[in-house]
Amino acid sequence: MAMVFIMIMIDISKYDKLLEDLKAMLFSERKSRKLNRIEPNFYKNIHSLFVELTEEKDRVVSSDITEYMEITKLLDEVRKNFKAFFQVRFEKIGKYSVYDEIEEYLYNMSPEEKNIMKELNAQMKGYYDDFTGITRQTEEIPEMPEEENIVEEPPEKNITEPEIEEAPVPEEMVLVRIIKDQPPIAQPDRDYYLHRNDILYISGSFAKMLSSHGVCSYIEKGKKL
What we know:
Elements: H1 12-31, H2 42-60, H3 65-96, H4 103-106, H5 111-132, E1 173-178, E2 185-186, E3 191-192, E4 199-203, H6 204-212, E5 216-218
Antiparallel strand pairs: 1-4, 1-5, 2-3
């Protein structure tokens, strides 16, 4: 026996009508400074709408992708418009909740909104009483202890004594005679410009170098020049 599967199609037009009604309510609420009158069962109907659309979307996800996409789009539209309506309406409710007398504003509200309004009003009165000191108890707010002015001593620096370098022992100076002209010769103490028959004192190491090249001859101390 062949099995026949009967698909129950959702009536999208019914939900489209609810979406249009929600858009109209949002438009009207935005235009009015006061709260518009709302049906007592408005939020219950909204909740049922979300539940039904979500169930339908889950039911057709594996059988009809076209219908699934239509329901998803419709659900997103309903959610977007309801959030905007909720924000506009509860902005007004929040403003009224700070007033001492709120009875005149309850008339146009749903039962859920009335309960929220009364809760907010009681909280606002409590905050006001706290700020004005009527019910505030000093022990409820512990005073912060005064901070002591503690002067922190800077950390000790490890002062290292500078190393004392031993002064170099001055090299012995010797008297020499230059035998032949020389180009400029650089030495640690200065540059030397040596010419034939120059007689001068130079360091022992410098004299040794010049003597090895036949450039100078030593003159003994006390010897007549």
